[in-house]
Amino acid sequence: MAVITAQHVLATRGGIENSNLSVALDxxxxxxxxxxxxxxxxxxxxxxxxxxxxxxxxxVIAAQKAGAWVDDWYHxxxxxxxxxxxxxxxxxQTTPVYLWNAWxxxxxxxxxxxxxxxxxxxxxxxxxxxxxGLKELxxxxxxxxxxxxxxxxxxxxxxxxxxxxxxxxTATRIIPWSFVPDWGxxxxxxLTAATDVMQSESGVxxxxxxxxxxxxxxxxxxxxxxxxRQLLDLALFGWGARxxxxxxxxxxxxxxxxxxxxxxWITCSTxxxxxxxxxxxxxxxxxxxxxxxxxxxxxxxxxxxxxxxAQQSWPAGARLYPARPAQLLEQPALVKLTDxxxxxxxxxxxxxxxxxxxxxxxxxxxxxxVWDRLPDESEDLTHAAERLLLTLDSGMAIxxxxxxxxxxxxxxAQRWIDKGRTERAGLRSFIYAMRGRQRVVWVPTHMDDLTIxxxxxxxxxxxxxxxxxxxxxxxxxxxxxxxxxxxxxxxVLMRRITGAVELSADVERLGLDAPLGIDVDPGQIMRVSWxxxxxxxxxxxxxxxxxxxxxxxxxxxVFREERDDEF
Length: 567
Description:
The chain is mainly beta. The chain has a 26-stranded mixed beta sheet that branches. It has a four-stranded antiparallel beta sheet with strand order 3-5-9-7, with no helix packed on it. A two-stranded parallel sheet has the order 1-2. The longest helix is centred in the last third of the chain and has 15 residues, at 420-434.
């Protein structure tokens, strides 16, 4: 016989001594509602006949309501996503928006607030509409380039009860600048850093970088004719103060592989060009009317991955540019050449940070980098000395002039020509690494400043030079004590002069801080130049792009000497 383990359940009145139970309660003929507040939850909100609230043998019980999953998700309306950041809107963009009615019964959607120019929601009937309980509906949010240049608004789905479901939408509306520049006068690019320089009377300075990346400007001459002239006139009239998608003209390339509408990949070069993840690319045809702006999801070695597929087909040979949001610094003056042809000079300021990799020269001297690239000497280069002079002039006596630093500071103007993407990218990296006027490098004058007149052995720590008054005027003082020796085979030797003595009227002997390490004959020396520690004299550096990035660009700058002594 099977044995079952069990527990006998007693009835509520089965001999239990409980003062809270009453036999008389069983004989109550009416329907009892224990608490009056629960009557409102009766089906249909109507009580049965004869029912009334009864509180029997009440007692106070200390308790705390425990939260449940139902409290977290139900009795509200959920919206996803809650924020949409569309970035730079250069064409109509559509994003799905999902609303879930987590109430157990239908709600009425009264209206959608916050809609304006260039913003609409599609996919459902126009409110008011009944939103069924426990159901999800999908709307399509569509934002176009039309409307305010900066979009930051909140859309609200307003219901009959409860808080509204909110969606924040942010974007920047821009349209492409599809007019091409005239390359005959070159395209000028300005990189403007911000440096706080505090200099003492002795010439010692403290320098602080105020911008993480320099501001970037482009200026170019343009000739526009026919329908394009009419388009330019109306574009400036209606959108002159708006944000444009400016093509980075020097980084232009021609498509080698056609693009079919619907493609999300562009085969192209990306190395050392201004393409970036989250940025823009611009395709242009034969006229200013044929263009398409695309958002870049990721730049890869062989091309660009797009966030959204291309809307048009583009043949091989179409122009491809990286693009940046930019604004005209001033409204260009259109010069009438004929009734169909105008010329203009346009200047744009790029509106987003233009980061670039920093790279100082690898050659160093006394733990500082050395910028000793040979400058272009096809144009005159200036070489000057600057002093910190303090003048006290009462207007009646002879002025009193004091040289507060007690020394001169060399000022060097130099110019370079770079060809190809690698050289031009390296030049840009150096400009970025200098951070305006903050950082310093050793710069030779590239002049024939000393003439060595006798052979120098590998172990000698002196050199004999032609007499030029070095012992009398300098004697190893800062600013004229570091030399840059270039040999005919390309070898570079850098040493510091520690002392000087006149051997005769024509020969001076200079002491060096270390031997040259190799035997040097005067016939092997191409040039001996002074070398000074310098920074940029100005925060603005200008590049002239004579051709696109595969061709030639020029750069000229002025270096100013900084103290390198014990201060």
